[in-house]
User: Fold this.
Amino acid sequence: MSTLLDLVGEERYKTYKEQEKNPLKQAAQNRLRVHILAVGDVGSTILLALKMLGGDVIREIGICDLNENQLARLEIEMNQIAYPWDYDRLPKVKIVGPDELFSCDVFVFSATKGIAAVGSQVKDVRMAQLEANRELIGIYGRMARKARFEGLFAVVSDPVDLLCHAAYQSSNTDETGTFDGQGLRRDQVRGYGLGVMNARAAYYAGKDPKYAQFLKEGRVFGPHGQDLIVADSISNYNEELSQELTDLTVTANLKVRELGYKPYIAPALSSAAISILLTIRGEYHYSAVPVGEVWFGCKNRLIDSGTEVELLELPEKLYQRIVKAYKNLEALI
Assistant:
């Protein structure tokens, strides 16, 4: 039986782990400051969720966007959401400029240069965004380097796993194009896209009894596009049912597009807001974290020493699906 550790080898994995630490350990003694870059459909949904659900761990949410009217509107409306006679219970929202973006504990990158229009024939929307968003996130990776940012760099824009690598690389590259390791640490960067795939798999498992064991025994791995892996069960793995459930999950966003809408609500909430809050709280969640040179989606949590990846013993057929997805990501970086 294999585990995720076998993707990179035990000794290599240990070497990486020895370099890690929890980017939120010091700040976690108090409620944190979270800054969100870009508050369009996705960013504003994340903002609302963090405002309503994050009062125990977040004291302030900064928002930054090119649309000044959108910023002004959100500052007004978000700060008019309050419990009566308990006005500090929910995080305050404030507008921050580009020069303040990394004066925070958690930076949320939700900016994007282009999302496929509703009705387009694009099947893998996340990959269609790669080139434009890779260039964009590079700008903010270099800004994080300049600011000597020590917090969590949370990537929400697609494709999160590849953009995590791009942010890390750009942050650690000097003016001559030389990688010097003077920017973000690997453990500071994680991608938030897998949470919604888990929720979509659970949605279909709840509708059809033949997939029901996923609700108690299932897992998801890898990128949240065509190479997604859904396992109906770790202990009683069924290859055929798992592939069926994977196909349903991967195409779930297209069902919403067919209705004439962009499927951003569930990703913004399940992948981003809920998963970021679980990260801050040190609870298990799904996110893309560095496994070797690749940011790979799996169940994990942030502990005092860094990231703890769930290392289950995996059935061989499932492990081979994971190896294939891992190698495909490795080739793309």
Notes: DSSP finds twelve helices and eleven strands in the chain.
